[in-house]
Design a protein that fits this description.
By secondary structure, the chain is mainly alpha-helical. The protein contains 13 helices and four strands. The protein has helices spanning 5-29, 43-98, 104-118, 121-137, 150-177, 185-198, 208-217, 224-234, 243-255, 260-270, 279-283, 288-295, 310-318; strands at residues 205-206, 241-242, 277-278, 307-308.
Length: 319
């Protein structure tokens, strides 16, 4: 309005003032009576209307500024309410996490419910981020109704979720070792500390390299072929060794070292009580890599062209 309509009116007003002045000068020149505009069109009338227009502009600007202030305040209140609500949820989760007590199953159920409460914070933070952009567009740099920025809350939410997931893994791990009473607490703690050290990505599982390094650090060394077979037998669906599998293996390894009789009985079961074993027998329990590695060590059987003499193999291993 000020750059278009108002300037057009201003130009017309100046032209009218100039035109009236020129008319009056010419009438003086020709000794004519002064020109008298019709009622309501005199210069004083035009000036009064111009003054009223300026007053209307002031009132309109005040109304606009009032609306802007109300809009900015409403936007700040909305942002503050959302931000404070998110922080309240985070505070409640942190309090509940620090107050955990009771049986492990109950604690795990509580942590699981807290994780379910924390997950919706992602969409809430996205909405808050949109509000923050709106505040930036409205030139709102400081908020009157909260002290929390989106980046602050995103960091807190990320740390809270990590703490919850870590706590859940810890409780699950404690549940896995709770009934293993044949080992001392010091032994179980050593196994658990070793697992945590080599679980570098904190996914509560060990890759083949991490698992082997953990076993080596605990004094359990295996040849490449032996480790390949072992890992293939223990590995989980995601190609890693879970904590429960890891701890049970170490407990069994510590409590009861495998005897020749146990290995012999295992081969007999696989071979269906035959004095030799075939590739087809092994495929039921081992992967192709493990079979290939094992059959490099077992001599061929004289009793069957497709058989392997596991009895001779065991005599060589345990002699």
């Amino acid at each position: 309005y000020k750059a278009s309509t108002k300037r057009t009116w201003t130009h017309e007003k100046i032209e009218l003032d100039t035109l009236l002045g020129d008319i009056q000068i010419k009438r003086v020149t020709y000794n004519l009576a002064p020109f008298v505009p019709r009622a309501g069109l005199a210069p004083r009338d035009l000036e009064a209307a111009w003054i009223e227009l300026a007053a209307a502009e002031v009132r309109h600007r005040k109304a606009i500024n009032h609306h802007i202030r109300q809009s900015r305040d409403a936007l700040q209140r909305r942002y503050g309410s959302e931000a404070n609500s998110i922080q309240s949820v985070l505070n409640n989760i942190a309090h509940a996490l620090s107050a955990l007590s009771g049986e492990l199953d109950a604690q795990l159920a509580t942590v699981t419910s807290l994780i379910a409460r924390a997950r919706p914070l992602g969409p809430a933070l996205s909405r808050l981020s949109s509000l923050e952009r709106m505040c930036s567009d409205a030139n709102i740099d400081e908020h009157d109704y909260t002290v929390y920025s989106v980046s602050d809350l995103e960091y807190d939410a990320e740390m809270t979720m990590k703490a919850l997931e870590k706590k859940a893994r810890f409780i699950e791990n404690q549940s896995a070792v709770r009934n293993m009473t044949n080992l001392t607490p010091a032994q179980l703690e050593e196994f658990e500390a070793t697992f945590r050290y080599f679980d570098r990505d904190s996914r509560n599982a060990l890759s083949d390299a991490e698992f082997r390094a953990a076993l080596d650090s605990l004094g359990h060394s295996f040849s490449d072929d032996e480790f390949l077979m072992l890992y293939d037998q223990l590995v989980c669906g995601d190609d890693a060794i879970s904590f429960e599998v890891y701890i049970r293996f170490l407990v069994e390894l510590t409590e009861d070292q495998t005897t020749p009789e146990q290995v012999l009985q295992s081969f007999r079961v696989i071979a269906n009580n035959k004095p030799f074993v075939t590739k087809e027998d092994l495929r039921l329990d081992l992967s192709p890599k493990s079979i290939e590695s094992l059959l490099r060590e077992i001599p061929k059987s004289d009793l069957d062209k497709n058989g392997y003499d596991y009895l001779a193999y065991l005599r060589n291993v345990f002699q």
